[in-house]
Automatic annotation (TrEMBL):
A Pfam family per the record: DUF5753
GO MF: DNA binding
SMART domains attached to this UniProt entry: HTH_XRE
Species of provenance: Glycomyces sambucus
Domain of life: Bacteria
Domain HTH cro/C1-type: 18-72
The protein, known as: Helix-turn-helix domain-containing protein
Record-linked InterPro entries: Cro/C1-type_HTH, DUF5753, Lambda_DNA-bd_dom_sf
Length: 292
């Protein structure tokens, strides 16, 4: 599904502007909380984009902060209104965690993804049957929403046929690990070959022979963003975000904490087979499974 202005990014943008305005005015979170009759923790959550902001709350806050710029206020109201809309993924909200819902919202507005996967094929590149067999590794309670979560993965994949650029470094282990039996894995590898032929999809296999390397203990995704339309701060780009999915919860890194991941990803790319040789490697593995 093509990106059409994710409410997640709009909500985060509005929160960032309001935080900057509050700090510039010298007001504390308690002052803002008093104006809205909420707790200071709610103000921080608004500024982090974790909760939506009502347009009327924007009006109250800019008054407290002494903002006189009418265009800025109008833009904030628009961002707040857009940030309260429900994205298409909201219909899956009962089946996924709030942090993961945030990731999906960010992904919908991202212009590029730099991804490293060490154990299994990334969800954006999975076939439905392969995706089903990934649930053999999850706790029993997670099986309750398996079908809905797989449907969500399939919907997310629609952006691969559009404007999303993805560069995926895949450990050789994920290519060789057979999930669901040879037939399922052959179809999955054929899917990688098809997607790898798209101009916006670049796949690189990181071979075993490379030994140890930075980042090998955890898969991660670096989300990059294009310019956000608006009258205020033309050319604004949402800062890059790193998403790390873990067994004990999802982790987001932002700001200066993102740069080490760019460095690690650059190393992974240089250590991996180039895209052409990677597709050849994947094709050889598919042929090997067909011969069994």
């Amino acid at each position: 599904m093509p990106s059409s202005g994710s409410p997640t990014v709009r909500r985060r943008r509005a929160g960032r502007i309001l935080r900057d305005l509050r700090e510039k005015s010298g007001k504390g979170a308690d002052d803002a909380a008093a104006a809205l009759e909420v707790t200071s923790s709610t103000i921080y959550r608004m500024e982090l984009g974790r909760v939506g902001i009502k347009p009327r709350d924007v009006q109250a806050l800019v008054e407290v902060y002494g903002v006189q710029d009418a265009e800025l206020v109008d833009e904030l109201v628009r961002l707040a209104r857009d940030g309260r809309k429900r994205g298409w993924w909201a219909r899956y909200s009962d089946t996924i965690s709030p942090p993961y819902a945030t990731y999906v919202g960010l992904e919908q507005d991202a212009s590029s993804l730099n991804v490293y996967d060490g154990l299994i094929i990334n969800g954006l590149l999975q076939t439905r049957e392969y995706a089903r067999h990934t649930f053999s590794m999850v706790p029993e309670r997670s099986l309750r929403y398996m079908d809905q979560r797989i449907d969500l993965r399939m919907e997310r994949q629609q952006r691969l046929r559009g404007d999303l650029k993805i560069w995926n470094v895949i450990d050789e282990a994920a290519i060789r690990r057979v999930l669901g039996g040879p037939k399922v894995m052959i179809d999955q590898l054929q899917n990688l070959l098809e997607l790898g032929s798209l101009p916006n999809v670049h796949l690189q296999v990181l071979p075993f022979e490379g030994g140890a390397y930075p980042g090998m203990l955890s898969s991660f995704t670096i989300l990059g963003f294009g310019e956000l339309d608006g009258e205020v701060d033309p050319g604004y780009r949402h800062p890059d975000v790193v998403y790390i999915e873990g067994h004990n919860g999802d982790v987001y890194e932002e700001g200066e904490d993102v740069e080490p991941f760019h460095e690690i990803f650059g190393f992974l790319r240089s250590a991996a087979l180039d895209p052409g040789r990677s597709l050849e490697f994947i094709e050889r593995q598919a042929h090997h499974l067909k011969s069994l």
